[in-house]
Structure formats: structure tokens, C-alpha cells
Amino acid sequence: MPKEDKTKVVDELKDKFSRSKSFFLTDFTGLNVGEITGLRKDFRTKKVEYRVAKNTLIKLVAKDLSLDQMVEHLEGPTGIAFGYDDPVTPAKVLYEVNKKLSKPRIKIFWVEGKFFKGDEIEKLAKLPSRELLLAQIIASLDSGMRNLIGTLEGILREFVGTVDALAKAKKDK
After folding, report:
1. Do residues 62 and 70 make contact, with C-beta atoms less than 8 angstroms apart?
2. 148 and 95 in a common domain
């Protein structure tokens, strides 16, 4: 590959790594053409980009972007799944494909600033969707507010009752 082409690929990869909320390094050894095509199709429908790149070029990107922790995992063929919108979506796709085929092997993955070992993907993949998590948070905040309002109303009723009792006692004197 001519140097200009390598520079172009490195720049493209830097852009992809910089823009992504998550990325997953995979070893696609053992996947046949049909399986890889199916994997790419699954990724495309979920708005995840899957790219195969040379380890030497990924190492250059890792060095430039201070992603040194992934360098030791760059052995054998490497495919990268980039999650731009939802950091969990690539994990869900890879987990489902892995359940069926036991491939590709997840070498390491990065989610919003933190690296994880490949075997931790199940925890991430089983998280509810972002929308569901937000709904759960809102529901718990709402119930907390309702409890607070109920407590404050009770205190206010008690205070009003006490004031009424004092006024009545004073009136009776």
C-alpha cells in the first residue's frame, strides 16, 4: 500500500475513533463470506459501521489518540465496529451474532472513555435501551417527587390542624 494511501486510511480511522461513542475490536477468523456479509448487514440496519483495517495502521491511530491499551490486542485479523449514536448497539449486535456462531471473538472494546475486556460484552449487551433507561429514571424521579409532595402535604395539614387547635383553644379561654 503506497504511503499516501496509508496516510489516508490512518486519517479516516482517526476520525472514526474520535467520533465514536464506542468501538469494538473483533477477530473475525473463521467467519465465512456469508457470515461476514450477514454481520455487516446487521450492523448497517442498526447504524453501526464495521471496518477491517491493518493492525499496523490501527497502532498508529492508537498512539496518536492515546488509546495505547488496545495495542496489545492487535494480533490476527482485526475488524472494528464503531457505534456513533448509541454506544450499546454494536455490543447487542455482536452478542447476538456470537450466540449463534460463537464468532467473531471480541478482543477488547471501548465505551465512552473506558476499555473493557471482550468477555464483558454480555453485561453491556443486556442493558436496556437508552430510551427505556431514561424512562426508568424519570419514573423513579416522579415517584420520589410524589412521595415528597405527599410528605409535605401531610406536614402542612398537621401544621394547619395545630394552628386551628391553638386558635380554638385561645377562643375558648
Report:
1. yes
2. no
Q: Tens digit of pLDDT for each residue in 112-131?
A: 899 999 989 998 898 887 78
Rounded to whole angstroms, how far apart are CA atoms 95 and 77? 19
Shared domain for 120 and 154, answered yes or no, is no
Residue of 80, 88, 105, 93 lying closest to 12 (CA atoms)? 80
The residue among 121, 97, 106 whose CA lies nearest residue 70 is 106
Kindly report the CATH number assigned to the domain that includes residue 11: 3.30.70.1730
Q: The C-alpha cell of 95 is what?
A: 452478542
Task: Reply yes or no on whether the pLDDT at 1 is more than 80.
Answer: no
List the grid coordinates of 44. Answer: 448497517
Residue type, 173: K
Distances (CA, A) of 66 to 20, 58, 103: 15, 12, 28
Chain length of the chain: 173
Residues 46 and 117 in one domain: yes
| 99 vs 117: CA distance, rounded Å | 17
Write out pLDDT tens, residues 23-47: 999 999 999 999 999 999 999 999 9
d(CA 76, CA 27): 7
